[in-house]
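About this split. The held-out portion is used to measure sequence recovery: a designer receives only the structure tokens and must propose an amino acid at every position. Recovery is the fraction of positions where the proposal matches the reference. Here is one held-out target exactly as it appears in the evaluation file.
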């Protein structure tokens, strides 16, 4: 059965992005520190079309997170660009260039309708205005039996967690403090919504915490 698998990097004080996020600084001030552990990995660099990189204890975790994914869901903030209605004269096409690293359908939660966006490498962005359940049903259909990745950001993750729809959650806990920004668990209460810690992996610059339903 297809699962909804959520993965994200988070600081020790619970932030998944720093303050003052913008088109010029999408991760906010200090936000790149959350991903330094990944940037050095061969597996992650290959995904971005880059050479080099190392293998360490994080490598099998990243390989597992990429396996058997047939579609992705993300929030409008993670897709990026400007707030409000889409700019028809200067259409935003995401942070990832002409060939995004997904190579499968990506469903973007938004309040503003937009035609699907075809990119190189098989990535197709579909903009969903009918809510999280509709996006998940469309993603499951597109995944054709594979799993669906919930890529963030925080607001989208909060909605799916609170609705009890997340089957697996991988928190990449980075030993840094951001002080402010976008917190992952704001507004979700004190429940993990049926998720239990099933694995802990210590790696250079990060600790991977995997939660799943029994």
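Reference sequence for scoring:
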């Amino acid at each position: 059965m297809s699962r909804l698998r959520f993965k994200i990097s988070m600081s020790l004080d619970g932030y998944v992005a720093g303050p003052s996020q913008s088109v010029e600084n999408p991760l906010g001030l200090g936000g790149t520190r959350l991903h330094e552990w990944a940037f050095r990995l061969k597996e992650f660099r290959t995904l971005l079309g880059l050479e080099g990189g190392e293998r360490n204890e994080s490598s099998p975790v990243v390989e597992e997170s990429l396996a058997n994914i047939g579609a992705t869901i993300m929030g409008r903030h993670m897709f990026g660009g400007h707030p409000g209605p889409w700019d028809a004269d200067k259409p935003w096409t995401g942070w990832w260039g002409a060939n995004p690293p997904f190579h499968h359908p990506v469903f973007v939660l938004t309040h503003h309708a937009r035609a699907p966006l075809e990119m190189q490498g098989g990535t197709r962005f579909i903009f969903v205005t009918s809510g999280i359940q509709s996006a998940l049903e469309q993603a499951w259909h597109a995944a054709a039996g594979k799993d669906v990745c919930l890529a963030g950001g925080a607001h989208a993750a909060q909605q799916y967690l609170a609705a009890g729809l997340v089957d697996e959650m991988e928190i990449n806990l980075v030993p840094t403090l951001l002080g402010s920004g976008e917190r992952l668990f704001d507004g979700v209460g004190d429940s993990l919504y049926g998720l239990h810690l099933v694995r802990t992996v210590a790696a250079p610059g990060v600790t991977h915490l995997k939660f799943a339903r029994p």
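Annotator remark: The mean pLDDT is 95.
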